[in-house]
Amino acid sequence: MTKTSRGLAGLIGFLLVWELFSRSGAVREQYLPPASTVLAELFGLLGDSSFVLEVVATVLAWAIALGISILIAVPLGLLLGSVRGVRVATRALVEFLRPIPSVALIPLALLLIGAGPETKIVLAVYAAVWPILFNTIYALDEIDPVMIDTARSFGLSRARTMFTVALPNAAPFVLTGVRMSAATALILVVSTEFIAGGGVGIGNFVLDASTGAGRMDLVLAGTLVAGIIGWLINEALEQLHRRGLRWSTVGTEDA
């Protein structure tokens, strides 16, 4: 059985268990609608232009946040990973900031930035920077010193060695960090939309559906859309890793 077949079988099994459990009477359908009802609402929402705009707003904020995170974390990771003095000097600050949950910063962000799209982008950037940063630093630690010494023996400058030797070898680790950050950024964007409200996005749609008429079918349909987006993003990044960095995946792919 292929990886795709196993995944499809698992998904069908999950939906079947959900359907049977919801219709068993163990919980009121008002609180947990059957999977068939939620899927019907989901397909209906995909034809609703206003909901499509909510999805576009979420995806756009996610893309901006992830792009900014990469632009910040990769150069900073290369600096901290290659210059030991800077890494030691900033270690305390990094270890202080890293554990702070981005969701806990939502009230502060609302006061300083307001309830616009900038808030969810800033919070998503804060959360998404760390996986990329630490994977980049770790990648530089794992580079064979012989490769660096060889490059320098041929007269390559520090900067050229960084871009021609270190960065290509760090690329698989960096992309793994990007995959982790992509999921984190999406979670933060949707969570901020849900908690802060007052804007557009999937999280705001779920908030309205849950506090208005209490439509759990719409709540779950919106949640499924967020999950599908996350799955598509991860699949796209996996394909990028396999095709763009094929040499790093030889012998590691599933049958």
UniProtKB/TrEMBL annotation:
Membrane topology, as annotated: Multi-pass membrane protein
Gene3D superfamilies linked to this entry: MetI-like
InterPro entries assigned: MetI-like, MetI-like_sf
One Gene Ontology CC term in the entry: plasma membrane
Cited SUPFAM superfamilies: MetI-like
Keywords: Cell membrane, Membrane, Transmembrane, Transmembrane helix, Transport
Localization in the cell: Cell membrane
A GO BP annotation: transmembrane transport
Regions that span the bilayer: 50-80, 92-115, 121-140, 185-206, 218-237
Listed CDD domains: TM_PBP2 (cd06261)
Segments forming domain ABC transmembrane type-1: 55-237
Family: Belongs to the binding-protein-dependent transport system permease family.
Record protein name field: ABC transporter permease subunit
Organism annotation: Saccharopolyspora montiporae
